[in-house]
């Protein structure tokens, strides 16, 4: 792996990083779903379909999953850029990506089956920036470009970390990520997901990436009984926790905060879901829910 270059700046950035990482999106949604111009609350039903119907556009470079009635109450929708596993295309994960879109997120998935360098993923942000500014686009004025997450599976999981070097990315979600990445180059909060029975990307490899992320708030979750392909399709047992993570960091969902942070957090005590669960010292500094 490359040298630990991100550490050079960690002391100078600590105060600013802590402030940014403990104050997720305010513009996306209120936790109670009552504020005009916000994405509605779903309580704690992150594994269930969200309040939006979903449309899908398959284009040459990207596939877009997004709420059919974007901005119906004046809200803007945060963005998730997605990277596929080796040899895969977005359709392999279509039900999971549709699920995130049903919760009010715009997912722009790179069509490439070789996403490791995250070039197409990051280009998805450029495309949405252009369309948000284009009065002729259905995305015009409806994209929340201030709140962006990178996510992906396997090779795309490594790409989710690689994409997070982009300063426009606010949080990362690597699912069973491959090893060709360097967490020291990113400065966003990150949720690493492993599968207990994954024989392709062993949990120990994912945990090594987690431990190398001690300069940012990092969480490690090992899904009990899961193999490497269990996140394909509708996401299986990965669906609810990934949705909660995205809703917290991109939509400011205080219900989701309580699943990850504070003593006795919801996922901390869910032994049926996890065969392994850890939070690093930076994650332990995230304030507990306010309500």
TrEMBL record:
PANTHER family: CARBOXYLESTERASE TYPE B DOMAIN-CONTAINING PROTEIN (PTHR33428:SF14), CHLOROPHYLLASE-2, CHLOROPLASTIC (PTHR33428)
Metal-binding among keywords: no
Pfam family, one: PETase
Keywords, sorted A to Z: Signal
Signal peptide: 1-29
Residue spans crossing the bilayer: none
InterPro entries per the UniProt record, alphabetical: AB_hydrolase_fold, PET_hydrolase/cutinase-like
Record domain PET hydrolase/cutinase-like: where: 63-254
Name this polypeptide is given: Acetylxylan esterase
SUPFAM superfamilies reported for this sequence: alpha/beta-Hydrolases (SSF53474)
């Amino acid at each position: 792996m490359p040298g630990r270059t991100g550490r050079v700046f960690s002391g100078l950035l600590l105060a600013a990083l802590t402030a940014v990482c403990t104050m997720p999106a305010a513009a996306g949604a209120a936790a109670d779903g009552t504020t005009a111009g916000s994405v509605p609350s779903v309580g704690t039903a992150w594994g269930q379909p969200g309040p939006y119907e979903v449309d899908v556009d398959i284009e040459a470079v990207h596939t877009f999953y997004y709420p059919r009635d974007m901005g119906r109450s004046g809200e803007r929708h945060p963005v998730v850029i997605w990277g596929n596993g080796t040899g895969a295309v977005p359709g392999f994960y279509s039900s999971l990506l549709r699920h995130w879109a049903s919760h009010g997120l715009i997912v722009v998935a790179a069509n490439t089956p070789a996403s490791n360098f995250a070039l197409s993923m990051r280009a998805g942000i450029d495309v949405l920036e252009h369309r948000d500014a284009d009065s002729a686009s259905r995305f015009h004025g409806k994209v929340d470009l201030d709140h962006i997450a990178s996510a992906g599976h396997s090779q795309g999981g490594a790409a989710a970390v690689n994409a997070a070097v982009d300063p426009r990315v606010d949080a990362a979600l690597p699912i069973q990520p491959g090893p060709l990445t360097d967490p020291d180059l990113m400065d966003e909060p990150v949720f690493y997901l492993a599968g207990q029975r994954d024989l392709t990307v062993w949990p120990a490899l994912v945990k090594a990436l987690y431990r190398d992320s001690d300069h940012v708030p990092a969480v490690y979750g090992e899904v009990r009984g899961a193999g490497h392909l269990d996140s394909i399709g509708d996401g299986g047992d990965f669906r609810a926790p990934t949705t909660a993570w995205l809703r917290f960091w991109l939509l400011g969902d205080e219900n989701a905060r309580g699943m990850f942070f504070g003593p006795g957090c919801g996922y901390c005590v869910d032994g049926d879901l996890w065969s392994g669960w850890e939070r690093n010292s930076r994650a332990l500094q995230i304030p507990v829910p306010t309500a």
